[in-house]
Amino acid sequence: MKNKQLLISMGLNVLIVIFSFIGIILKFKEEGIEFYLSYAFFTNVLTIIICSVFLYQEIKALYLKEEVQDSIKYNKYVVTGMSLLVMIYWVAFLAPLAGNDFVGPYLFQGGSLFLHVLCPILLVISLLGYDMVSLKKEQVLKSLMPTIVYGALIIILNIFHIIIGPYGFFEVYYSPWGVIILVPIGLAILELLILFMVYLLNRLSIKVEKQAK
């Protein structure tokens, strides 16, 4: 990666980490401790960790002329898919249910602006513009694992009455079984489609970069 591209990528990673922290703090003030059970919190904690490690690797690359490891780039691809799932879920389902327009205050104020709009957009720009990674098709399906682990853990906690929620389709003792089964499967399929689309755009970005050389 050239120094100019590297510096831009570093700047994007810094912004992503800062915006994630700001969004988490604001969301905690808005929603209280329940926010810490949400998929958005889980996603952005992973984003902070992965982008911080990515930034550390880039600093080494800048001074020691080392390449950023493909495993770190792959993990950034994973959290990009998760973050886009959060964004689409809010835009397509939660904002309309709240009676707000897509561009209304439900998305563009407080923690939502940072977690559900700015971070997903910056992750896409960062990954496809500067941090492309060679991916195999089987890695697309594998990238669902963090979401599956989160869903399984939340369901177990609901089964043992440790928590209720944080989403209606996880409330195993209060929601219809059809909702409990079909909504998570539908969201997993949606994330898989998102990941596959990002995979295709990533391949296109790599192809364009090679042709430009």
Please provide a written account of the structure.
The chain has 213 residues and is mainly alpha-helical. It has one domain (3-212). It is 75% helix and 0% strand. The protein is built from seven helices and no strands. It has helices at residues 3-31, 39-64, 70-97, 110-129, 137-142, 145-159, 177-212. It is globular, with a radius of gyration of 18 Å.
Helical content band: over 70%
Give start-end ranges of low-pLDDT stretches: none
What does the largest sheet look like?
none
Mean pLDDT score: 90
> How many alpha or pi helices?
7
Rg, alpha carbons = 18 Å
Number of strands: 0
Shape: globular
User: N- to C-terminal separation?
Assistant: 12 Å
Please describe the topology of this protein:
Elements: H1 3-31, H2 39-64, H3 70-97, H4 110-129, H5 137-142, H6 145-159, H7 177-212
